[in-house]
Known about the structure:
By secondary structure, the chain is mostly helical. A two-stranded antiparallel ribbon has the order 1-2. Helix 1 runs antiparallel to helix 2. It is 61% helix and 4% strand.
Amino acid sequence: xxxxGISGALPVMPAAPLPAAPPQxxxxxxxxxxxxxxxxxxxxxxxxxxQKAGALAVQAVTGQLEDVHDYTIAATEAQVALExxxxxxxxxxxxxxxxxxxxx
Length: 104
């Protein structure tokens, strides 16, 4: 298995389900789509993952973290989540631009 230049057997951990925010929290009406809610929840999950990695980094630097592997795993998870988010954003922008180029 090869992921972004990293080869070898990597353990595959199931993704935790993302909590869905209620439509009222996003200011959406009854016609809001599940995609928008899922996207908002994914961004919130990315933020939480980055905050966890940041907190573990501080613990590692101050010597409070017993196992530095916890930080390494959290930092990698945050990096992969960010790369996925950027890829989804790029595809969404490409799709939007393609729709805008269509003749009416």
